[in-house]
Amino acid sequence: ERDLLINIEISLYKHKMEQALREREERYSLALPGAHDGIWDCDLVNDTVYVSQRFKSILGYQDDQLGPALPDILALIHPDDLEKLRLLYYSLVNENASHLEAEHRMLHKSGEPIWVMTRGAITYKDGRGWRAAGSLTDITARKRSEEQALFDGLHDGLTGLPNRALFLDRVGLAIQRNKRNPEHLY
Fold it and tell me: What is the pTM of this model?
């Protein structure tokens, strides 16, 4: 009889845990598409990575077009941003930092660069980066808006020609250059 009660308690506990797991999976299955971000999960020891369908679609790929090899994903980072991201990653790992965040460009399947925000968390085992996981957000529209606002602030709205603010900025730079090197005339 005691064994029967123990088995019933174990069964009830197991049922509660399975229910909690189902609820957690349902919560995440609703939250992830709602966030509209791509998800990545990287095994830093074996150089493998899982990327979600949304991650692939942000970069213009179908489900079977990006493999699990980390070097294949890293090859999609814009060459001008790769060194900056490597330095950021190594500085974070050396500090045992748990969070990473970076704006950078990646190459879309079409070959065009797109701006993304990468956020993630790094876990450590025996003092080494062991696993990293996070999200990828397409911020191309925001970056284009920022560039347009900067252009608009320095150019005439009607003609597109440089305005007084840009002229004064360039004159200031020329004066600074001249102070460093008096032989340089402006």
Answer: 0.73
For residue 5, what are its two tokens? 């009660």
- Say which DSSP state 39 is in: E
pLDDT along the chain (186 residues), means of 10: 85 89 76 78 91 94 86 94 91 84 96 96 86 95 94 91 91 90 80
Q: CA angle, 51 as apex, 115 and 139 as ends, to 5°? A: 15
Inter-residue contact 139 to 113 (CB < 8 Å): no
**C-alpha pair distances (Å), 30 with each of 25, 34, 174:** 9, 6, 56
Contact 177, 186 (CB under 8 A): yes
Helix (H, G, I), strand (E, B) or coil at 118: strand
Radius of gyration of the chain (CA): 25
- Residue 65, pLDDT score: 86
Nearest-CA neighbor of 107 among 58, 141, 38? 58
Residue 58: C-alpha distances to residues 10, 39, 42, 121 (Å): 45, 11, 18, 21
Q: How far is 146 from 152, CA to CA, in rounded Å?
A: 10
